[in-house]
Design a protein that fits this description.
With 316 residues, the protein is mainly alpha-helical. It folds into 2 domains: 193 residues, no CATH class; 74 residues, no CATH class. Helix content is 66%, strand content 3%. The chain contains 12 helices and 4 strands, in the order H-H-H-H-H-E-E-E-H-H-H-H-E-H-H-H. The strands form 2 sheets. It has a two-stranded antiparallel sheet. It has a two-stranded antiparallel ribbon with strand order 2-3. A hairpin with a 2-residue loop joins strand 2 and strand 3. The longest helix is centred in the C-terminal third of the chain and has 27 residues.
Length: 316
């Protein structure tokens, strides 16, 4: 177990006991931190591991939240029964919108995802078929009830989000050691070399988008529960920019880096309430300083040119 894994475990243990020391306002902020960390982890699969520039990740986050809200408020689904839709719908939409453009590289794919995010925001605001509630969004989402236990308190939502965060960490750990994780790493480093090794570039990029979209949708499900409401402004283009910035500031393919990036980009401005209106100024300054002082992020993945899990084992 390396040092960073130990630090990650210690941090998760701290998070496990943190609610007992927080006021209601700080607990709400801590839940937001957990949810946004999950979204950032999901975006890191696409950007940090596959190396695909994606500036529309808030789409998948929003699809999970709106799937829960619409099915519950308009069609009277129980909250727990909306969960599969919150996970599967972003996966399906990711395939539909990304598969035609997955062959694009670099800036071209980036611009395409920006366009999709702007379209998504406009669709939510225009209230198609009276489903999304327009600019005001949807209110009155029911509480989650599982086997007779109702998630009615902030602390119960906190531990729901914390449990999903832990599962996300385990999933990414497993991904790192799998053939899919190795393929994504090779694609990130050198697409031509990866293709020469027989790796289907488009297939693995779509896999990264699908997995990342599903994780983001799950985070959207928890977001809808936390707020009992959803609105377009929570899933606009600037939110996608923020998630993109988290990965760059924290360090791609680094779970401690993603957590650090989430804290800096979303939580730090809240700690200095007098500077809350300068959130984007803090965001810009953090980006500039990071690119100058730590171009690979604050806590980049420590694998050098070849990850430890890809190095050949020594013969006995």
């Amino acid at each position: 177990m390396n040092r960073r894994t130990k630090y990650l475990i210690i941090f998760l243990i701290i998070l496990a006991f943190l609610p007992f020391f927080l006021s209601s306002a700080w607990l709400s902020l801590a839940i937001t931190f957990l949810i946004f960390s999950i979204v950032a982890f999901s975006g890191d699969i696409i950007l940090g591991r596959a190396g695909v520039f994606n500036m529309g990740h808030a789409i998948f986050f929003g699809l999970g939240a709106y799937a829960t809200a619409i099915l519950n408020t308009h069609f009277h689904f129980s909250i727990i029964s909306t969960l599969p839709f919150a996970i599967i719908l972003p996966l399906v939409i990711a395939y539909l919108i990304i598969s035609p453009i997955i062959h694009l590289r670099g800036d071209y794919l980036l611009v395409a995802t920006i366009g999709f995010n702007i379209i998504f925001e406009q669709v939510l605001s225009n209230n198609p078929f009276g489903l999304t509630g327009g600019p005001d969004g949807i209110f009155g989402i029911d509480l989650l009830n599982v086997f007779g236990f109702t998630f009615s308190s902030q602390i119960s939502i906190y531990y729901l989000a914390f449990g999903i965060l832990v599962l996300s960490v385990l999933l990414l750990k497993a991904l790192n050691k799998s053939k899919y994780g190795r393929a994504l790493f090779y694609i990130n480093k050198d697409e031509i070399a990866a293709k020469s090794m027989g790796i289907n570039i488009s297939q693995y990029k779509l896999f990264a988008f699908g997995l990342g979209a599903s994780m983001a949708g799950l985070a959207g499900f928890v977001f809808a529960l936390q707020n009992s409401a959803v609105s377009p402004e929570s899933f606009n283009f600037m939110q996608s920019v923020m998630f993109f910035a988290i990965i760059l500031v924290g360090g791609g393919a680094s779970m401690p880096g993603i957590l650090a990036g989430t804290f800096i980009m979303f939580i730090l401005p809240e700690l200095f309430t007098s500077f809350k209106d300068s959130r984007y100024l803090i965001f810009g300054a953090a980006m500039i300083l990071t690119m100058i002082l730590r171009p690979h992020g604050l806590l980049p993945m420590k694998f050098g040119d070849i990850p430890k899990f890809l190095k050949p084992k020594k013969e006995a």
